[in-house]
Amino acid sequence: MFNFVLAVRVGQRLSPADVERGLDGVRGRHVAFSSPPGSATAPPDAPPDAPPDAPRFPLRVLDGSGAPGWQAVAEEELARPFGPEEAPRARFTMLPSDERTDLVLTCDHMVSDGMSGGYLLRDLLAVLAAPGTVLPPLPRPPGIPEVLPAGFRESPASRLRVAAVRAGIRWSSWYEAHRRGAAPEPGGGAGAGAGAGADGRTGAGGGGNADATSRGFRIVSRGLSGEHTAALVGRCRREGTTVHGAVCAALLLALVEGSTGRQRRAVSSPVNLRHLLTGPDAEAAEAAGLLITPVVTSVRLAADSDPWDLAREIRHRLSRDTTGERLLRRVLRMSTIFGEAHRAAAAGEPGDGPPPLRPADYDLSVTNLGRFPLQPPGAPFLVEAMYGPMVNVVPGERTIGVCTCAGRLQLVYTAFDEPGEPERGAALLTSAARTLLDALDRP
Asked: Which residue of 41, 96, 282, 391 sits 20 to 30 Å from the alpha carbon of 415, by its own alpha carbon?
């Protein structure tokens, strides 16, 4: 199963007791985290109504004054999937030190996305700023079939692709069971983990599938200053592109740095579907759920390509592919694919869930949460940064999480721990950041 991780840095030491009380104030807020995927109370297309007694979020407390930092914790968390029956589908780690506290949130990517994690962190910080607050449940977003036009149907090619993915998921489940020498046991899972406290809260342990602990991940981060971030936002507006387009252009140029001739490169962008699914319902738009679909953008470029021309092309192609019928067909296909994954999870079938795209389809996956305001009004603490999303990628995939928080843009690279990592990721982000700064100096 896929996890993703977000980390937030607060410029003050927070106490575990305060954070636990804050978690109690948000545990019924986002109902998608309350039940395992594929359960009777969690249909694949939409979260259920809030359960009467939402499970408490586990909280692990580590010393934040030295190693490991949030990056090491995130690498560990990516290797600890949630068990099939484990609830809730999110957990927290806090690393308090004398001058700051890092909060690390791990979510099940089968029921939520990066925006969901950001909203959960925002709500937690709001409760920490107003102790005793209990946030009510948000309305669930509509299911995908509810928003499709009457009579809308998938194309024959799309149905064929879905059938192939379904077959791949089932073959993967059979192969995993065969490799382990035993058939999968429906409903099996490791529960909350031996290291958790008696009520599933503060402790050193975790839960999930122990097989995944053999996987290693490497994480590297780079950030722009507040001054450079503001300059980038303003320049993108004047150039007729977006920060996402500029970041993707810089990353692709980093891949071809030092090469000769033109190459075709592609980037996968998870696209937020909340505007499609919720319409004007602002509350439902902030509820947790798996409300994204990946879109691959392919361009031809050379090492000396103009970054602003490339950024505009990426923006144009991405906009073209995320409007009208193209987007609806993509959404329906992904809904069917993840529905199959939920069915497999409910049946206790092994495997890592359905990769909706193969890494061979693209060079990088770039998840951009945009500008994410986390600072609660009147809070006695200052939110300094947010990092991520970090995703436990499939072999051969490299993901870059992008977000702008507290006025600073952060890039976080995640890949498997393999020869050349994390040096390759550090070089990629360093080159991309240099390209962005050089582009700001262009006339």
From this structure: 96
